[in-house]
Amino acid sequence: MTQLNPLTVAMQMDPMEGIKIGGDSTFHIMLAAQARGHRLYHYLAPDLTFRDGRVLAKARPVNVQKVQGDHFAFGPEEMLDLGRDVDVVWMRQDPPFDLSYITATHLLERVQAETLVVNDPASVRNAPEKLFVLDYARFMPPTMITRDLAEVKSFLAQHGEIVVKPLYGNGGVAVFHVGKNGANLSSLVELFKASWVEPFMVQAFIPGVAEGDKRIVLVDGEVAGAVNRIPGAGEIRSNLAVGGSAAKTQLTDKEREICAAMGPELKARGLLFVGIDVIGGEWLTEINVTSPTGIVSIDAFDGTDTGGMIWDAIDARLAARAAA
């Protein structure tokens, strides 16, 4: 679709009622879009329909404002053709990265020739955060993906302390630290195997996590900023969703090296908004492409406008498509 000014933007995301506007990156992006005069629509992933060769969404126009509890207002429901009626579709619902999520990527991939989908749905599908990161294993702590208890015990014996986490989890949920004595390790592996059919991730524990887990945001392959997330008392998890606190930070030389190594690949894949996690200034642990967060804190600490940077990148993408 030829770029319009203003743009029509469809947000595939979670329910507006549950958005915590103080730190929600999707809401931040919506505010930035609205400030530019773009028309916003909201719909949920289950509202997608494929019919007569078209991908449709039962959506509602939405206006947003920074007033918690009165932060959105819906207009009457409409049936949008996501290829013909919309300039940009944002895929911003939170995981789990399950078959429902994967199905949504397949449906949105069908409108890519007409409408810009952010992030690129095929690339999101092919880059789950804890697997895509293996392409950059040279920057990672020792890592194993397995369902085998004997392998986990061997890994623990080799590295002393480990972290066990689900392969397709998010928000720091079900992340466990196992100490040198391996207490409850067998039970933990049994729990993971009963809860998930896929393997799980095991990594050597990095003591530097006590000083924080840095979220670095890249926009179309370029660093937009970073925020350090510090674990709460008695926690190893630094995710803000589980009680971590945010602190201003700067990038280390190693972190800049990591970003420079992956930036061109992110841009080539159409992964326009990405958040990577780095511990101790040097250890890459995840590449978040589904629904990364952190830009509210980054802008608050650094006085930047990451939302504006994101929309500038989208404008550039649309201009390139129109010229092709």
UniProtKB/TrEMBL annotation:
InterPro entries: ATP-grasp, ATP_grasp_subdomain_1, Glut_synth_pro, GSHS_ATP-bd, GSHS_N, PreATP-grasp_dom_sf
Cofactor section: Mn(2+); Mg(2+)
SUPFAM superfamilies assigned to the protein according to its UniProt record, in alphabetical order: Glutathione synthetase ATP-binding domain-like, PreATP-grasp domain
Protein name: Glutathione synthetase
UniProt-listed HAMAP family: GSH_S
NCBIfam families, per the entry: glut_syn, PRK05246.1
Family affiliation: Belongs to the prokaryotic GSH synthase family.
Listed Gene3D superfamilies: 3.40.50.20, ATP-grasp fold, A domain (3.30.1490.20), ATP-grasp fold, B domain (3.30.470.20)
MF (Gene Ontology): glutathione synthase activity
Domain ATP-grasp per the UniProt entry, residue ranges: 130-315
Organism of derivation: Sphingobium rhizovicinum
Catalytic activity as recorded in UniProt: gamma-L-glutamyl-L-cysteine + glycine + ATP = glutathione + ADP + phosphate + H(+)
Signal peptide segment: none
Record EC number: 6.3.2.3
Record pathway: Sulfur metabolism; glutathione biosynthesis; glutathione from L-cysteine and L-glutamate: step 2/2
Pfam families according to UniProt: GSH-S_ATP, GSH-S_N
Taxonomy, superkingdom: Bacteria
Gene that specifies this protein: gshB
UniProt keywords, alphabetically: ATP-binding, Glutathione biosynthesis, Ligase, Magnesium, Manganese, Metal-binding, Nucleotide-binding
